[in-house]
């Protein structure tokens, strides 16, 4: 087993990759680490794959996977994680914004300080203000929701124990919340290291402003799913039954009132003329619907199979080469 696997998602990053791989190689050799580099070409339409093939000729420690289309950074990381064999797995962006010189210290924090996950913190972030200001807000919200005291959740540079990356499922756009996912499956020792961050040297960013809206929705679903993943019925069923009982109680009161009035020969109002009647009706209907949602949720989780499959068009696998 290698000391380190470096997992790199790359979408149209042909210019950066040769420099990045050479730099990683130098750092690894200087520190005497055994290593592999796992590049996931996320359906690039530039020369990324040709570049990777060139690198493979001079870099024996390279594995590479090329997706049939652009599935997104989360899918790329997820697949990279499945191939990674190192006892410590380090992710970094392909665009040379993350600094390979951070690798030895990240490795040490995992192996010697016992962290499950160490996240980079781009304290001096080299990106435009339009990105850095909303990011502060996003980090504050995520800290508050998750209870994890990180400054920079979405830093591409992170280190993990191998077991962590094999246990988590990163799909959709969930790469922004890997620490939250890791915590939800029980890896609670999460650390942080200030890391150097460089301006993008080649190409341009692959994410626009929509990242903040999607990011927030993803956070809601993570919080919700991790809380109620096991028993949707505990959430929906509880509120459903409560709502139904309230509605039923009110309806019972209205009808009882009418029956008593008839019995005592007093004047009475029709049940349907009383506003409370509509409240009772709505509460009962909502109650049944919530209960049904919980029930369907239960059926889905007991029958659902695992993550979606991504189609791989090409591969370079080290173990097959040797
Ligand atoms: N990336 C990817 N698939 C995508 C978008 C991005 O694999 O659909 C990779 C990209 O090549 C880079 C990393 O994710 O290695 C971070 O992307 P980018 O630098 O554009 O994000 P930013 O630094 O602007 O947050
Ligand atoms: Mg970048």
How would you describe what is shown here?
By secondary structure, the protein is α/β, with parallel strands linked by helices. The protein has eleven helices and eight strands. It has helices at 17-30, 48-58, 73-83, 103-112, 129-146, 162-167, 178-184, 210-228, 232-263, 275-303, 318-321; strands at 4-10, 35-41, 62-67, 88-91, 117-121, 158-161, 190-194, 312-316. Strand 2, helix 2 and strand 3 (62-67) form a beta-alpha-beta unit. The longest helix has 32 residues, at 232-263. Uridine-5'-diphosphate binds next to strand 1 and helix 3.
The unreliable regions are: none
**The number of domains:** 2
Basic shape: elongated
The CATH architecture of the largest domain can be named as Alpha-Beta Complex
- CATH homologous superfamily classification of the largest domain: Spore Coat Polysaccharide Biosynthesis Protein SpsA, Chain A
Number of helices: 11
**SS-based structural class?**
alpha/beta
What are the distinct ligands in this entry?
uridine-5'-diphosphate, magnesium ion
- Total strands: the figure is 8
Widest sheet: strand ordering? 7-5-6-4-1-2-3-8
- Which sequence of SSEs, written as H and E, runs from N to C? EHEHEHEHEHEHHEHHHEH
Indicate the radius of gyration in whole angstroms: 27 Å
CATH domain class name of the largest domain: Alpha Beta
Query: Largest sheet at a glance?
Result: 8 strands, mixed
Q: What is the CATH fold-level name of the largest domain?
A: Spore Coat Polysaccharide Biosynthesis Protein SpsA, Chain A
Pfam families: Glycos_transf_2
GO cellular component, one term: plasma membrane
Keywords: Cell membrane, Glycosyltransferase, Lipopolysaccharide biosynthesis, Membrane, Transferase, Transmembrane, Transmembrane helix
Protein name: Glycosyl transferase family 2
